[in-house]
Design goal:
Elements lengths: L3 E9 L4 H9 L1 H7 L3 E5 L2 E6 L2 E11 L3 E6 L8 E7 L6 E10 L3 H19 L3
Antiparallel strand pairs: 1-7, 2-3, 3-4, 4-5, 5-6, 6-7
Helix pairs in contact: 1-2
Length: about 130
């Protein structure tokens, strides 16, 4: 049984759905903001930060809507998902993140996502 707790954060992003999806689902897009470099072989993605590598398996994806990855090293059912939500009334685009962290590291994990999404917004030219 996992000690990790699920948490969710939402970020409003000024971008089109298809463009945002490219940045969350492709190695080249993810390399722009999520990691220093990203390679993929089929469903297996290798994320590289400062010379260290982490592998994640692409579990699910739906074009222009979401991607879900699971870290290869994880010993539980934890995953991280990036889902694009479009408000039907305002047409505002949000990126909804679902992730898991140890209970005492949730705030730190949320801050990490905030920093990552800030980089994504910069790349997209979104405020």
């Amino acid at each position: 049984m996992s000690d990790k707790v699920k948490f969710e954060v939402e970020f409003v992003i000024q971008s089109s759905q298809p463009l945002l999806y490219q940045y969350i689902s492709t190695p080249s897009g993810l390399s722009e903001w999520f990691a220093d470099n990203v390679n993929s072989r089929g469903e297996l993605f290798t994320f590289i930060w400062d010379g260290s590598e982490e592998e994640a398996k692409l579990l699910k994806r739906k074009s222009d809507e979401f991607v879900r990855f699971a870290w290869a090293e994880a010993e539980d059912d934890a995953y991280f998902e990036m889902r694009i939500i479009v408000d039907e009334i305002t047409s505002d685009v949000s990126l909804f993140i679902t992730d898991f962290a140890d209970e005492d590291e949730v705030d730190e994990a949320k801050m990490l996502w905030e920093n990552q999404i800030s980089s994504l917004k910069q790349v997209l030219g979104s405020s």
